[in-house]
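Field log, afternoon session.

UNIT: design team B
ACTIVITY: writing a sequence onto a fixed backbone
BACKBONE:
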């Protein structure tokens, strides 16, 4: 019986399928891979969705009224009805100051004994505001909310007196893309990039190093496998795992945390696939350079996870960073993916944002794949 002669292409496909099957079985037998893909998203989503909040609600506020009357009662009612404050009354400014020093309250509104007299006479009614400035961002938010409550009450007071409030400028607030100002809508989309970075970069960073640690790389070197087949066989299973983790995260974000997805699904899939390839290329480059799993994992944390968490715009605004750090963020792939995700979830298909960031990720993919091709050799070194 004459043996069947396979073409080079057919033999290459057989070797690739075998490599993919080997890596897939290794993933299934490794609980940490499944945990990072499906358990970690749940933990991070619940942590950032429920436990971490950038919203200012129920701010403990001390109120001191030296001479209570109808005017001061109306202003106190404005603070008590606000969802942003949890007011506490103090008999004296000294007692309120002690509470502020001991961190029991975050601010003080002080209405002196001549408040109503100046208000009724048409002069400037003195009102003192003290805010805890340890957290500068929280202090600015608290100060803005106090001013908003004061102006709203002043408008109602003027209307009750039968004359309009004389203001040189009238502000009409209109918040786009996140009208209720819920920080969860901002944080959860960015988590998709963080989770895909973990799956793509950190897991892939150890695939080649694992072979060296277990002593199986030498065996693989004597097989007919070509280096591009080894690389593709190791990347494809993690690509599928990363995309599955992304879909799982998006389903949780939309149905569990009610985060709106206003953009198209195909745009989300396309951008996620491109970012996943970039993350896999970075992880594979780390794995080739480092032949130790522990070292590869530490490098991956420093080079991929921490920049994705800090320098991507996930939590910290890039435009508020010093300009050298802003320049550094341009080599962080997660920066571009986070911008796409926040646009797709909150604003919809904003094509200039989408294509500009897709182009930047494509350039990074070409650079990292070129480095992988240059460093990957099927020989012992």
């Amino acid at each position: 019986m004459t043996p069947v002669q396979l073409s080079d292409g057919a033999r290459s496909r057989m070797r690739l399928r075998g490599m993919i099957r080997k890596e897939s079985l290794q993933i299934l037998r490794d609980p940490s891979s499944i945990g990072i893909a499906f358990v970690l998203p749940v933990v991070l989503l619940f942590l950032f969705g429920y436990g971490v909040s950038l919203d200012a609600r129920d701010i403990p506020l001390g109120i001191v009224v030296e001479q209570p009357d109808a005017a001061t009662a109306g202003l106190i009612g404005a603070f008590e009805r606000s969802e942003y404050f949890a007011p506490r009354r103090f008999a004296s400014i000294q007692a309120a100051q002690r509470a502020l020093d001991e961190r029991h309250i975050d601010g003080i509104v002080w209405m002196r004994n001549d408040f109503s007299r100046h208000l009724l006479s048409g002069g400037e009614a003195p009102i003192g505001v003290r805010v805890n400035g340890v957290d500068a961002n929280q202090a600015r938010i608290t100060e803005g909310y106090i001013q908003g409550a004061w102006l709203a009450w002043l408008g109602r007071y003027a209307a009750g007196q039968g004359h309009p409030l004389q203001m040189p400028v009238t502000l009409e607030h209109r918040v786009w893309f996140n009208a209720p100002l819920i920080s969860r809508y901002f944080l959860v989309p960015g988590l998709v990039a963080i989770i895909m970075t973990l799956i793509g970069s950190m897991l892939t960073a150890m695939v080649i190093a694992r072979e060296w640690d277990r002593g199986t790389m030498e065996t693989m070197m004597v097989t007919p496998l070509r280096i591009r087949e080894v690389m593709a066989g190791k990347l494809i299973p993690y690509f599928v795992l990363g995309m599955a983790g992304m879909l799982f995260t998006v389903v949780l974000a939309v149905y569990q945390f009610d985060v709106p997805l206003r953009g198209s699904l195909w745009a989300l899939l396309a951008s996620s696939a491109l970012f996943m390839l970039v993350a896999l290329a970075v992880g594979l480059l780390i794995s080739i350079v480092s032949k130790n799993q522990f070292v590869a994992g530490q490098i991956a944390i420093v080079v991929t996870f921490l920049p994705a968490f800090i320098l991507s715009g996930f939590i910290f605004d890039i435009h508020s960073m010093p300009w050298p750090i802003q320049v550094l963020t341009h080599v962080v792939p997660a920066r571009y993916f986070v911008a796409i995700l926040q646009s797709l979830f909150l604003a919809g298909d904003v094509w200039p944002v989408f294509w500009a960031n897709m182009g930047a990720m494509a350039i990074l993919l070409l650079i990292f794949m070129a480095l992988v091709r240059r460093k990957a050799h099927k020989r012992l070194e």
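LOG NOTE: Residues 11-52+182-375 form one domain.
NEXT ACTIVITY: expression trials, pending approval
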